[in-house]
Every structure is written in C-alpha cells, then in structure tokens.
Amino acid sequence: MADPIPLAQRMAGIDASGIRKVFDLAARMKDPINLSIGQPDFDVPEAAKQRAIQAIQAGRNRYTVTQGDAELREAIARALRREFGRFDGPVLVTSGVSGGILLALMATVNAGDEVLIADPYFVMYKHLVNVLGARPVFVDTYPDFRLRADRLEAAVTPRTRMIILNSPCNPTGAVVPAEDLAAAVAVARRHNLLVMSDECYNAFAFDAPFASAWPLYDRIILLRGFSKTYAMTGWRLGYAVGPAEIIQAMTTLQQYTFVCGPAPLQAGAVAAYETDPADRIADFRERRDLIYEGLRERFRVTKPGGAFYIFPEAPGASGTAFVSRAIEAGVLIIPGGVFSQRDTHFRISYAASRETIQRGIAALNRLARETGA
C-alpha cells in the first residue's frame, strides 16, 4: 500500500462541509423531507434566462475583463445609487458572494491577525480565516442572536483586523436592526478596523426595511449577489464594492484565481435587475410564519427576521444527536455545530414547498414529543 500523500498544513483545520454532506445524502435518499439546503425553490427569472441565451447565441462566450462586464457593473452601480442616494466607487463582479469573501480576506488579512465573527456564523468565515493563518474570534449572540456592540468591544485586541457582519444571517435568519448595526460599526471606527458586510440575503428582510452597513463607514467591504434574490445559485455571480485600494487588490487576486465571471450569465444578471422579486419575497415571509408558528410550541425558537432559515434549540441539548434522529426519520436538517462553537441548535431552510414544510413540522414535532419536549 502506497504511503499517504501529505497535504498542506492549512488543510488540517478544515473538514468537509456539514452542509454538503447532507446535500450528498439527499441525493441518495428516496423522497426525503429536505429542509437542509439554502437554495431558492423558484426558478431564475425568464427575462434573465433569455438574455443569457441571447448572449450565448451572439457569441458572448469569451473572457470578460477581470472586474466584470461593464454593462453589469453599471447596472450594479445604478442599483446602489437608487438605494443609497449616491455611489461612485469601483465595482468588482465576483464568483458568487463566496468568491468575494475569499478575495476580501486574502486582500486584507495577514497571518496572526484576528477576525471578529458573530456566533452563529456562515460556515465559510471560520475556515477561510483559518486557511489564511489568521485567528477567528467568535462573539456570542445567544440566546436571541442579537449583535451586541459591548460583546464586540470586549473581543477587540491589538491583533484585531476585521469585523465580519452578516445580515440577514445564515444560519439564524436574524436581521441586525439599524441601531445595532450603527453600534457595531462604531466599534470598528473606534479601533480603525475593517468591516466585511455580507449582505447576500439583503432582499429577504421581512419585518422592516433592510439596514445596510455600507453608508456608515469608509472602511466597509460590501458583498452582495444574485444567487438568493434571483435563484441564480448555479450562476456564481456576486459583487464587491468598498475602498478603492481594497477592490483593486481583490481584482488583482481575481486575475490569478477566478479570472472573471461567466460572460453570458453576466448579461443575464443585467436583465434580472429589470425584474421585481417582491412577490417571491412575500411568499418567503409567509413560509417563515408557517414554520415559526408550527414549531414554537414544541421548540425554543427565535422568530427570524429574514433570509430563509430558522435556528431552533434542539430538545435534549445536543444538536448533532437530534439531527441524527431526524435524518433517520427522513428529515434533512443541519446540526448547529456546523455554524457555531455550540452544539445546541439546528438549522432549517424553509426554501421548500409548503407541503414539504408542513411534513417537516409534523415530523420534527413528533421527534420533539418523543424526546420529552
């Protein structure tokens, strides 16, 4: 038997994504109640599909410039000007928001730096910070998933480089209200820190107008995308805006990593901006209400304000143990320890049909009763 091939030391701190493990499991199961994957169940807007097809047929199948096609960058800039009143900064089209996260961290974080991350967190933050030789510092938001400035302040050290904000949040669905956002950004300003604001789910704010960190500070890297709002998860398109020197550094890194976004799909994304997602967002608000009302009597659960996730506390204290039982019963959910330093909760994605959600509610409540909840 051949000796094992040694891998780079940076791989020691990374394991296979718990989300992808469940995704792979779903592909092998017959008719599971799949509440695991954060992927909209509606289709890409028809206008976007047709524009992409037209671009392919017109021969727009070659590389674009690294920073993205000019037509899409201008469409993004127009949208930001409508939202914020002014916008004149550079735009970088990224390979999804995930690509933007990687480029932003690579461009700004050194080995030994500390990055403040609200816990629970999107799984990618922790692992990418570790890959770069930096240290993730987790700031607890339990039990209500509220971002508290005093907890951020207490976590700052001379090595702190960045605060990562994520609103609406994956996995909790929490939306940071404007006053909490301003207080968090004030901590960054006081200590001259960078802020990376992951606003991938910005369209999915159900109970109040969405508050963005972008206008509050001149050291914010804003990351948004098309995957969730327009169901383009497989198109891999997002964008980054921020301080010019950081966006330029990210663009340079993109030359040697992702190269550029897919050319015909960038054309389709321009057309997506011409559609209105309001009806889809209203539908997800109704699904949020359905699953929250269906679970709240049996589970300790905070009502999410956005995205399409809910993060209940697991009966019996162990999220992993409860999720194992749920999967045995045919319900696919994600253990909270994938997203947190705690293993007390589990994540549900309600980006599923109402029929699937209702089946999931019934099965989870049955499991909770069996656990004594």
Name the CATH architecture of the largest domain: 3-Layer(aba) Sandwich
N/C terminus separation: 51 Å
CATH topology of the largest domain: Aspartate Aminotransferase, domain 2
Largest sheet: 7 strands, mixed
Average predicted local confidence, pLDDT? 94
Count of helical regions: 12
The level of helicity is 25-40%
Give the strand line-up of the largest sheet. 2-8-7-6-5-3-4
Structural class, by secondary structure, is alpha/beta
Textual characterization of the structure:
The chain is an alpha/beta fold. It has two domains: 130 residues, Aspartate Aminotransferase, domain 1; 227 residues, Type I PLP-dependent aspartate aminotransferase-like (Major domain) (Aspartate Aminotransferase, domain 2, 3-Layer(aba) Sandwich), CATH 3.40.640.10. It has twelve helices and twelve strands. The strands form three sheets. A seven-stranded mixed beta sheet has the order 2-8-7-6-5-3-4, sandwiched between helices. It has a three-stranded antiparallel beta sheet with strand order 9-12-11. A two-stranded parallel sheet has the order 1-10. The relative contact order is 0.17.
